[in-house]
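Annex B. Sample input.
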Amino acid sequence: MSDITHQQLDVNGISMHVTQCGSGFPVLFSHGFPELWYSWRHQMRALAAGGFRAIAPDQRGYGDTEAPADIHSYSVHHLVGDMVGVLDALGLERAVIVGHDWGGLVAWQTALMAADRIAGVVGINTPFFPRMPMRPTALMRAMAQGNFHYILYFQEPGVAEAELEANPARTLRGFFQSPDRARLEALLAEGPAALGPQGGGLLDRLPDAPHGAFLSDEDFAVYTAAFAKTGFRGGLNWYRNFDFNWETTAYLSGARVRPPALMITAELDPVLRPEMADGMQQWVPNLRRTYLVNDCGHWTQQEKPDEVNRVLLEFLAEFR
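Annex B, continued. Sample output.
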């Protein structure tokens, strides 16, 4: 990818791998789990062709970015600090921020905590979630009703690492599946027990099948090589901060996201359901649009890149 540049930057106390493409108003991308900057390859080129400067780091704990040992080094304040730190390191005053999955949570929180640096915000699959009224893991236990809950499974350091790192290619195949409408309908019909009873691991609940058609074998090899090198500890530590984040953000209770915003949802995402974005206008008063991508699962910007790029560029037109 000779048109995409790579560099290591000192950001917020860590060495961060940052990629860039194009010139113009900056757009900062924030990926999710288990992903890399590479998840934005389609958007970076499209935005560069459209006159924007696309910037996509490997997030803290991923790829060629440093992975601190301390679990609390992956708190939301660190993750937001990384995004602001990238802008500082590149000498940029403001940017539009775009996030998917966990990166969507980071994008919304950056727009909330550092609104003076964020010109606009885009959530892909992940809506803005206001601060919960109770400790997140307690709420998850109540929702799980004694059944398996993957975020609760991730809480004990070392347990999920042992399972996911035993065969990174098998793990990533399980995650990177194309949408299956019939399977989704069956899961939704099961309700809170969708991931089944306690016992076993996460991979017992993920297909052991070829990776989704939205990835070429070469694309998939990029992910497997990265996670074979780093393991999954960095990304899992983000999940281990749910309660800590809740404890340290009481000051944000009732806060609203003020920058102009776009929400992109995906019809067949089994976890981040489109209806989760209903009523978001209450918390994001400058929400310009909520757009539904039909026949699309969780990996939206990779499954439907042309559609996502079109909607993104329409939103970005006001920032030229």
